Amino acid sequence: MTAELVRGQNHTLPQTRLEIRVSAGCPVVAGATLGDEHGTVRGTEWVAHPGSPRLPGLEVSRQAAADHRLAVDLDALPGAVHRVTVLLALPTGAGHPARFGAVAAPFVAVTGLDGTEIATFTLIGLDTESAVAALELYRRQGAWKVRAVGQGYAAGLAGMLADQGLDRAAELAASIQDAVASGLARSVAPPPPRAPDGERVRHPAGPAPSPADPAPPRPGSEPLGGPTTAPATGATTGTAPGAATAGNAAPGTAGGGPIDYAHPRRQTSAPPPPPPTAPSAAPGQPAPPVAGDATGWSMDERLYNQIWGMFEDLARAVAAYRSAVDFAESRMEQELDRALSDPRHRMGGAGDLARERARDKCQDLTARAREVLDRDLSQLAVESAVVEPALPAPYAGWDNPVWHGYRVPMELPMALRLGDLHLPERTDLRIPLLVRLPLERGVWIDSGRTASEAAAATGGDRLRRLAMDTAVTLAARLLAVYPANEFSVHVIDPAGAAAGALAPLTDAGVLAAPPASGAGGVSAVLAHLTRRVDLVQMAVRAGAADSLPPDLDTGEHLLIVNDFPHGFDDRAVTQLRYLADEGPAVGVHLLMVADREDARDYGPVLDPLWRSLLRVTPVADDHLVDPWVGHAWTYEPCRVPEGSRVLEHVLALVAAARRADPR
Question: 190 versus 624: which is more confidently predicted?
Fold first, then answer.
C-alpha cells in the first residue's frame, strides 16, 4: 500500500533500488545531494545536477522538465553517505515563474523499479520559494527510510546548497542554471494539455526509462510555437507502449498490450467533433489506424494531436526497451561479480557455468524487450503510413502531392512542419516535427561542422549552401501557410554570398525588399525592424494600438541573417539579441544561418542569443531532445525532391496572391 506522506513524516523503504518520480506544473530542475552522518554535503562532487547527472548509486535528469525520474541504488552509494536529499528548483530567466507559489504544487513519488509506488508527497504551502528540498532518503540503524521534507528557500538554489554546508554554493548554483539553460535550448516542448485547472495527472505504474531521463508529460509546458486557445493534447491516462506491469522481473520485457489506436492518451477535456470511425478489427486485435483519430475541433487539430501522440508513444516505447536492456546488463554484471568473488567458482567449470547462465539471462531479457519494441514500432509504422498521406500542406513534406493542389490560405494554420525526427532503433519511422504558429522562438540553422556523421562527410562550403537552402525552404513554407500579405521576409546577406540559394525567393518577388548587403544595408534593416518592435511594444503597453503610424506593417516579419557574424558590428549584435528576445511577442522572428565556431570570439555576449533560438541543422544530427524522456532524436530538415519544381510553383502562387491583394 502506498504511504501518502505529509511534511515531516517518514516511511521505511522495503528495497534499495528505487525511482523517484517528480511531477510539476512547469519545467523544474531536479537534483540530489549526498550528505554524511551530520547531513553535510562535503563538496561539489556530492551533488548530482543537470551539469553532472551521475554519481555512484544516483542519477538525475539532464534538463529541466515538468516530469523527472531519478534513479537511486542505495547499496551503491559511498559508505560515508547517510542521506540523499532530492532538490527541486525553478529555472531562472525570462519566461519562467519566479516562485513555487505561482505554479501547481509539485508531486513526488518513491517507487520500485516495477513502478509500484512506495511513498508519495505533495509539496503544498510553498509561496515565495524558488527552490525546495522535497524529500530525503536517510539511513537509520542499518535501514533506509524516506522522509517528506518540503523545506523551501526564497534565496533559491544557492541558499539551499549553502544551508547543507556546501562551500561556494552560489558558484555551483550558477553553473547548474547555465547547464539548464543550455538544455532548454535543445528541448522540443509539447503542446499544452487541457487538463482542468488544479487536477493532478497521475500516471500508472510502468517501466522505468533510462534513469537520467525526465518522464511523462505534465500540464504547463508551452508549445514550441507558443500557446493557443484551441484544445490540444491532454493528460496521459494509459500505459506507454511496451510498458511492463507491476511485478515484472525486468521493466519493459513483458505486459503492456499492443498500442491502442483509439489513443486514450491523446484526448482533451473539451467536447470535440466526433473523430472518424475506425474500421472494425478482429477480436483481440487493435483497431486499424485512422488518420485524425485524436480529439480536436477540426481535422487539422486532430492530425496535429495525433502526431504528438505518436511522438510520445515512440519516445516511451524506446524508453521501455532501453530501460529493460540496462536492467538486464546491470543484473548480468552483478551475477558475474558474485560468480568471480565466490572461491568455489575459481576451480573447475563451475565459474564458467555461472558466467554462461548470467549471459543467457541477459540475452533472454534483451530479446524479450526487443520483441515488445518491434511489435510497438511496427504498429506505429502502420499508423505513420496512414497519417502521412492525409496531412495538410503545412504539416506535409515537400514530396507530398498535397502541395501540387496548393492554394493560398485564408486563415493561419495551427502549426508548421520544420523537419522529421527519428531514433536509431528504427530510422525509417519518422515523426514530423511540428511547431505552433505564430512562432514563439526564432530558429538558428547551424552552417558549421557538428559531431554527426553527415556533417563530417560534408564539406564546409557545401554545408553553408545546404544551411541557406534550408532557410529558404523554411521561409517559403511560412510564406505559403500565411494568408496573402500577412507575412513578410527580409534578408541580410552582408557579402552577397547567398545569392544563388536565395534565387527562389528573389525570382518569385516575395521578399519585402532586395537582400541587404554591406554595412549600410545591415544597419538599415536592423534599424527598421527594431523600430517596429519598439513601436508595437509601446502601443500594446499603452493600450493604444490604433495610434501606430499608418505606414507600419502590422503583419508578421521574418528576418533571415546569413553568414553571421561576418559584417556585423557590436551595435548590430545588440540589435539581433534584442530582436531574438523581444521580437516574437510582437511578430518579428529571427532565422539565423551561422556557424557558432565563427562567433566564438564574442564569448558569453552571444550565449543568450543562441539559447533563445531553436537550433536545427541542414543535415542529419541528433541534437534535439523530447520533453518526455529526453531521448536524443536525429533531426532532418524538409527537403525539396531532386528535380522537383514544387517550390517555384508554390512561391508563384504566393506572389500572385500578394499582387491581387496589395493591402
Answer: 624
Cα pseudo-dihedral 259, 262, 214, 254, rounded to 10 = -20
The Cα–Cα gap between 442 and 435 comes to 11
How far CA 205 is from CA of 113, 117, 414, 415, 602, in Å, comes to 10, 8, 34, 33, 48
Beta bridge partners of 34: 84
Q: How far is CA 290 from CA 314, 382, 434, in A?
A: 17, 10, 19
Quote helix, strand, coil % in the chain, to nearest 5.
35, 20, 40
pTM greater than the 0.70 cutoff: no
Query: Looking only at Cα atoms, what is the longest distance across the chain?
Result: 93
* Strands (DSSP E) found in 349-508: 415-423, 426-436, 442-446, 487-492
Residue pair 512/581 in contact (Cβ under 8 Å)? The answer is: no
In angstroms, the CA 210 to CA 503 distance is 46
Q: What is the pLDDT of residue 121?
A: 93
Handedness of CA 299, 301, 307, 313 (dihedral sign): negative
Q: Which neighbouring-strand residues pair with 85?
A: 33, 136
Instruction: Say which amino acid occupies 223.
Output: P
pLDDT digits (tens, 9 = 90+) for 474-511: 999 999 999 998 999 999 999 999 999 999 999 999 99
- pLDDT, tens only, 11-66: 999 999 899 999 887 888 999 999 998 888 988 899 999 888 889 889 888 888 88
Strand 117-122 with 107-111, pairing: antiparallel
Spatial distance between the Cα atoms of 515 and 498, rounded to a whole number of angstroms: 9
What's the length of the chain? 663
Q: Encode 51-78: b = buried (16+ Cβ within 10 Å), e = exposed.
A: bbbebebbbbbbbbbbbbbbbbbbeebe
Backbone angles phi, psi at 78, to 5 degrees: -55, 150
With beta carbons less than 8 A apart as the criterion, state whether 611 and 182 touch: yes
Contact of 525 with 492, CB cutoff 8 Å: yes
Other Cβ atoms closer than 10 A to 329: 13
The set of long-range contacts for 72-77, using a CB threshold of 8 Å and a minimum separation of 24, is: 72/17, 72/18, 72/19, 72/20, 72/32, 72/137, 73/16, 73/17, 73/18, 74/13, 74/16, 74/17, 74/18, 74/137, 74/139, 74/144, 75/16, 75/17, 77/34
Side-chain half-sphere CA neighbours of 611 within 13 A? 17
Grid cell in block for residue 488: 513578410
- Residue carrying the nine cell digits 528505487: 18
| Residue 141: φ, ψ to 5° | 55, 45
Q: How far does Cα 555 stand from its chain's mean position?
A: 29
Q: What is the mean pLDDT of the chain?
A: 81
Residues 6+ apart with CB under 8 A from 397: 388, 417, 420, 432, 638
Residue 519 pLDDT greater than 70, yes or no: yes
Is 83:39 a contact under the CB 8 Å cutoff? Answer: yes
Coil, strand or helix at 109: strand
User: What is each CA distance from 56 to 72, 112, 115, 412, in whole angstroms?
Assistant: 9, 19, 22, 51
Query: Residue 636, SS3?
Result: strand
Phi-psi region of 164 (alpha: psi -120 to 50; beta: other; left: phi over 0): alpha
Q: 479 near 510, Cβ under 8 Å?
A: yes
* Angstrom distance (rounded) from CA 22 to CA 90: 13
Which of these, 172, 186, 193, 216, lies nearest to 19 by C-alpha position?
A: 216
| Distance between CA atoms of residues 305 and 298, nearest Å | 11
DSSP secondary-structure letter at 401? G
The C-alpha cell that represents 250 in the structure block: 525486468
